[in-house]
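User: Hello! I'm new to structural biology and keep hearing that structure can be predicted from sequence alone. Could you demonstrate with ADP-ribosylation factor? Please show me the input and the output so I can see what each looks like.

Assistant: Of course. The first part below is the input, the amino acid sequence of ADP-ribosylation factor. The second part is the output, the predicted structure written as tokens.
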Amino acid sequence: MGICSSQSTLPQILLLGLDNAGKTTFLYADKWDQFDPTVGFNYEEIHLRQIVHVGVWDVSGKSTLRCLWPLYYRNINFVAIVFVIDAEKEERFAEARRELQILINEEELRETAFLILFNSRFEPIFDLEELTARVGLDLFHKTIKWKAALVDLMEESEDFKLALKWLGEQITN
């Protein structure tokens, strides 16, 4: 198996977002209390919150490594992308918006479901509607399947559970 291929028969999810947004927290919060930011990528086959068994590719969001993202989605058939945005860093919304626009315009991802998670450990500055507008989710193609949720990735809130339920439905349908 090459670095950007998968022999697994499991549905594959690509976990993306800017650096330090909470991607690795999404992957490991129910396993460990502490972990380091991703330097390259992590791959885990997990039972996603008791919904569906999947392979998850957690790829670094560091600016110098984002150019590698296409190597993953052009070589692996992903059923979903989970894009994590730090809801507490307004100064990075424009950067996240640019990266999302690139992804939604990729031909290889036209059939891929997008779950956008706005991660906030504290009281959020903006509500979900305002966050959605600030990162341009209203500009998504009408044919793109997407859902956004405002969550704390360290907690199992009702909104987080509903977002994961939606993700599971996209994977199993």
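User: So the tokens describe the shape?

Assistant: Right, they're a compact way of writing down the 3D structure. Reading them back into a model, for example: The radius of gyration is 15 Å.
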